[in-house]
Specification:
The chain is of the alpha/beta class. It has two domains: 10-190, Rossmann fold (3-Layer(aba) Sandwich); 207-277, no CATH class. The protein has helices at residues 24-38, 78-97, 106-120, 132-138, 149-162, 171-180, 207-219, 241-251, 268-277, and strands at 10-15, 42-47, 58-61, 101-105, 124-128, 165-168, 188-190, 227-234, 258-265. Strand 8 (227-234), helix 8 and strand 9 (258-265) form a beta-alpha-beta unit. The longest helix has 20 residues, at 78-97.
Length: 279
C-alpha cells in the first residue's frame, strides 16, 4: 500500500477532453487521480462540459454547450470554443483554489496551464500523451503540406518548453522529445501505464476466480471453450479498426474456436454494424 504523504498538495488538474469516457487517455487520467488521492493529496479537475462524473472526484466543468453532447475524441474545430470555455473555468478555479501544482493533460491543457502558472505562481506538470500535430494528421485535420503545419509544430514545441516537468507514458515518447530538443533531460520523466492490481489480478487457482471469469465471459457473449483475441482501445479508421474487423471476418471460418472481442470508443455501434455486414 502506498504511504500517506506528510506534505499534502492541492493539485489543479486540467483535462481538455470530455472526461470521463471509456478510452485510454481518460483511464490514465482517472488512475492518476486515484493514485494521488490515495496518498493524501487534494485534487480538483477542470474539464469539458460533457462526460461521466466519477465517484470521489471533484470535477469542475466548463460552460454547457447544448448542441454538443457527444464526447470529443481527437482533433475538432469544436475544440476551439471548448478550450476557450475551459480556460475561463480553469482560471476561476485556480484563483479560488490557489493550487500548489498545476497538472495539465494534452497540449491544449498545457497551454492553459502555462498561462495559469504565471498568474497563480504554481509549477506546471505537463502530462504528455503524444504529439499534437501528429494527432491532427492522424485524424486528417491537418496535412503536412498545409501552410499551418510549420506554425503548429513550432507552437507544439513552445508548449513543451513551458512546463517545469514533462511526464510521458513510455520511453519512446521521451526519446522523441529529447530528439527534437524541446524538453531538457532533467525536466523529462517517464511514468509507464500499468495495471490497477486492486481491480485486475491474474488467475489464482480459486473457485471464486473461475466463477467470476465464467460470469464475465457469459456477460460478453463468449461461447464456452473459445480462445479469445482481444482488442481494447480507440475505435477509429487510422487505428486500423476496420482492417481488424475484416481480418476477423476472414479468419473466423478457418478458426471456429477463436472469438474476437473488440472493445473501445467512440461509436461502437457503427463498428458492430460493420462486423454484422461482413457476416
Amino acid at each position: 500500500m502506498p504511504q500517506q504523504t506528510n506534505n499534502p498538495l492541492t493539485v489543479l488538474m486540467i483535462a481538455p477532453t470530455s472526461f470521463f469516457a471509456d478510452y485510454g487517455c481518460h483511464v490514465r487520467i482517472w488512475e492518476e487521480i486515484k493514485a494521488l488521492q490515495k496518498i493524501g493529496h487534494r485534487l480538483v479537475l477542470t474539464t469539458y462540459h460533457n462526460g461521466d462524473d466519477m465517484p470521489g472526484v471533484d470535477i469542475r466543468r466548463s460552460w454547457d454547450v447544448p448542441w454538443l453532447k457527444r464526447a470529443m475524441v481527437g482533433s475538432s474545430r469544436h475544440k476551439i470554443y471548448l478550450d476557450a470555455a475551459l480556460s475561463w473555468r480553469s482560471l476561476r478555479v485556480a484563483l479560488g483554489l490557489r493550487p500548489t501544482i498545476i497538472h495539465a493533460h494534452l497540449h491544449e491543457g498545457a497551454l492553459i496551464g502555462a498561462v495559469l502558472k504565471r498568474i497563480v505562481g504554481a509549477p506546471l506538470i505537463f502530462d504528455y500523451q503524444g504529439s499534437m500535430t501528429s494527432e491532427m494528421i492522424d485524424h486528417r485535420f491537418l496535412r503536412r503540406e498545409s501552410p499551418l503545419y510549420v506554425p503548429l509544430t513550432r507552437l507544439e514545441r513552445l508548449i513543451n518548453r513551458q512546463a517545469d516537468a514533462v511526464i510521458t507514458s513510455h520511453s519512446n515518447a521521451a526519446a522523441l522529445l529529447l530528439k527534437d530538443g524541446s524538453v531538457a533531460p532533467e525536466r523529462l520523466h517517464t511514468v509507464i501505464d500499468s495495471v490497477n492490481t486492486d481491480r485486475f489480478r491474474p488467475f489464482d487457482g480459486t473457485a471464486a476466480w473461475e466463477a467470476q471469469r465464467q460470469e464475465l465471459r457469459a456477460q460478453l457473449g463468449i461461447p464456452p471453450g473459445r480462445r479469445i483475441v482481444v482488442y481494447i482501445g480507440l475505435l477509429a479508421p487510422y487505428q486500423g479498426t476496420n482492417v481488424l474487423i475484416e481480418a476477423a471476418a476472414h479468419l473466423a471460418p478457418q478458426m471456429p474456436d477463436v472469438h474476437f472481442l473488440i472493445m473501445g470508443y467512440p461509436d461502437p455501434a457503427s463498428y458492430r454494424a460493420y462486423a454484422a455486414s461482413l457476416g
